[in-house]
Design goal:
36% of the residues lie in helices and 15% in strands. The protein is α/β, with parallel strands linked by helices and 404 residues long. The relative contact order is 0.17.
Length: 404
C-alpha cells in the first residue's frame, strides 16, 4: 500500500494567506455593500510597464514564425536574460557573477521552497522571527523542522532568531549554531533593513561556522538608504557561504507572469562538491524553464526605458508607503518599515492580538491587512500593511483607520 509524506500532516492549518482569503470572502458575502480595501497580500496593482508589454508582444510574434519559434528554454535560462542580470544587478555594483551562476526560475517563492532539495534532511535551519512562512513550511514538508509545538507556535528543530523593536527588527547572531540560515533584507514582513557592516557579520559568521545563508533579496529595488547593500555578494567572502534569490514580482510587477532567479557561486562548496552543480542537476531534472515570452519580458526590465518605467512604479508604491507611515504615526500607532521596503509593520493597539486586530480592521474600517502571528510567534502583537494598493485606496484606507 502506498504511503504519504506524513510531514504534511504536521503543518498547522492552511497557508496564512489562504486563511485571510477565506475570512475576507465570508465578510464580503455577508456585507455585499461594503467596499473592501486590501492592503494585506503583497500583490502589485499597477500594470506591466510599456517596455515590458512591448517585449511581450514581440516575443509572442516570435513564437508565430518558424525561424524565431522557441521550444524548451535552456536549463539555466536564456543567456540574454542571465547576461542582463549579471551586468545590471551585480557588475554595476562591483560584484562579478558569472552567467552560469545565475539560474532563471518562475519566481522567488518557488526557489525559496525548492532550494531545500539540495540539502540533507538533518541540517538545522535558523530563521528570523517573524519570518516569511514559506521558509519554515517548506522545511517542515521535508522533515527538517521537527514537530510543531502549538502552545509555542514554533517547530521543535528550528532555531528562531528574534527580531524585536529593541533590535530594530533585525536578528542577532544565534547562540546555537545552525547549518542553514535564512535572511531576507529588506525584510518581509517587518520592512527592516541592515547596513553592509551588519550584513558582513553574518557572512563572517557563516564562513566561520560552516553554515550556508539563503539570502532573499526580493525587495532590493525598494532600498533608498545608501548604506544598505542590494546584494549579499557586496560583502567580502559571501561567495563561499551564500545563495541569493531574487524576483521580478515586486520590482517589475511580474506577480501574474512569474519570473525570478537564484545565484549560486561556484566557490560555494560542501567538501569538494559545488552547490552550483547540485542546483543545476535539480533545476534540469525538475524544471522545464520559464517561458521564452516571459524571459524576453524580463530582459526588457534592464533596458533604459524599462529601468526608468519600473523605477517610476517603485516610486509610486513608496509614495503609498509614506502615506501609510505618516498617517498611522499621526493616529498614534507605533510603526516601522516603509523606508527601504513596501511593508509597514505596526503594533496592534489596546492589547489586541494580531488576529483580533485583523477582525476589528475588517469589520470597522473594511480594510484588510496581515496578522503578525501568521509570520511566527515573534509576530504576535503586530500587523503588516502593504503599499501595493492604488494611491487612492491607500489614502482612503488610512483615513478610515485614523477615524477608528
Amino acid at each position: 500500500m502506498f504511503k504519504i509524506n506524513e510531514n504534511y500532516l504536521k503543518l498547522p492549518g492552511s497557508y496564512l494567506f489562504s486563511d485571510i482569503g477565506k475570512k475576507v470572502k465570508e465578510f464580503t458575502e455577508a456585507n455585499p455593500d461594503k467596499k473592501i480595501i486590501r492592503l494585506g497580500i503583497g500583490d502589485v496593482t499597477l500594470p506591466l510597464v510599456p517596455a515590458v508589454i512591448e517585449a511581450l508582444h514581440k516575443a509572442t510574434d516570435d513564437m508565430a514564425v518558424k525561424e524565431t519559434f522557441k521550444g524548451y528554454a535552456p536549463d539555466l535560462g536564456y543567456e540574454f536574460l542571465r547576461s542582463a542580470i549579471g551586468e545590471n544587478d551585480f557588475k554595476k555594483r562591483g560584484v562579478d557573477i558569472a552567467v552560469d551562476e545565475i539560474f532563471i526560475s518562475d519566481g522567488a517563492k518557488s526557489d525559496s521552497g525548492n532550494i531545500g532539495d539540495i540539502f540533507d534532511a538533518d541540517n538545522k535551519i535558523a530563521v528570523c522571527d517573524p519570518v516569511y512562512p514559506v521558509y519554515v513550511d517548506t522545511n517542515a514538508m521535508e522533515g527538517r523542522a521537527g514537530n510543531y509545538l502549538p502552545e509555542q507556535g514554533k517547530w521543535s528543530n528550528v532555531i528562531y532568531m528574534p527580531c524585536t523593536k529593541e533590535t530594530n527588527f533585525a536578528p542577532e547572531l544565534p547562540k546555537e549554531e545552525p547549518d542553514i540560515i535564512y535572511l531576507c533584507f529588506p525584510n518581509n514582513p517587518t520592512g527592516a533593513a541592515i547596513n553592509k557592516t551588519e550584513l558582513q557579520k553574518w557572512v563572517d559568521y557563516a564562513n566561520k561556522t560552516g553554515a550556508v545563508i539563503i539570502y532573499d533579496g526580493a525587495y532590493e529595488a525598494y532600498i533608498s538608504e545608501e548604506d544598505v547593500p542590494h546584494s549579499i555578494y557586496e560583502c567580502d567572502g559571501a561567495k563561499t557561504c551564500a545563495i541569493e534569490i531574487r524576483s521580478f514580482s515586486k520590482n517589475a510587477g511580474f506577480t501574474g507572469t512569474r519570473l525570478g532567479f537564484t545565484v549560486i557561486p561556484k566557490e560555494l562548496k560542501c567538501g569538494g562538491v559545488m552547490l552550483n552543480s547540485l542546483w543545476a542537476r535539480r533545476h534540469g531534472t525538475k524544471f522545464n524553464g520559464a517561458p521564452y515570452i516571459i524571459q524576453a519580458a524580463g530582459a526588457a526590465v534592464y533596458t533604459e526605458e524599462g529601468k526608468r518605467q519600473t523605477k517610476e512604479q517603485i516610486a509610486y508604491y513608496m509614495k503609498n508607503a509614506k502615506v501609510i507611515r505618516e498617517g498611522l504615526t499621526a493616529a498614534g500607532y507605533n510603526i516601522s518599515g516603509g523606508v527601504n521596503a513596501p511593508y509597514i509593520w505596526l503594533e496592534t493597539p489596546k492589547d489586541m492580538t494580531s488576529w483580533q486586530f485583523f477582525d476589528y480592521l475588517l469589520k470597522e474600517a473594511n480594510v484588510v491587512g496581515t496578522p503578525g502571528s501568521g509570520f511566527g510567534p515573534g509576530g504576535e502583537g503586530y500587523f503588516r500593511l502593504t503599499a501595493f494598493g492604488t494611491y487612492e485606496n491607500t489614502l482612503e484606507a488610512i483615513e478610515r483607520i485614523k477615524k477608528l
